[in-house]
Design a protein that fits this description.
By secondary structure, the chain is an alpha+beta fold. The protein is built from 3 helices and 10 strands. It is globular.
Amino acid sequence: MNPIRRRTLSLLALAPLAGLAPHLAIAHGENHGSGAAAGPVVKEQKPWGIAADAKEARRSIEIRMTDDMRFTPSHIDVREGDIVRLRAVNNGKVMHEIVIGTPEELKAHADLMKKHPDMEHEEPYMAHVSPGQRGDVVWHFNRPGDFEFACLIPGHFEAGMRGTIRVKPRA
């Protein structure tokens, strides 16, 4: 992601506190394709891990998304150090997404999405998936803990479209 876009997204995350959100909102939603990455992977350490290149994945987990606002499976166990391809498959008729994060960050982002449903964002820990398509998130789970994944499209998160990830410490 280019520095200007990153700065804009950072400001957007803080915008509700400063009353700037209406001036920073940009498009999100129906214009996303199959969830394919648009450029090189940005590797920024997050509490739940760091992005990885697709060729590094040693395990794939298919997560199905449906219009009953559920993920299947809704719980994933991985080990600290695992590099996993989360393949999100949209079996529904509406746009869905998968976003990894802490419960607090996902809730805050979902609240922001309700206020700005046309907001656009592309981060390596999310995939926007059109109906009948699939998208991948390739992630290096390099920190143990309990994390979540969710669909943050307005109404989906509130309807319970969430799942959990347990990253078990190395033995």
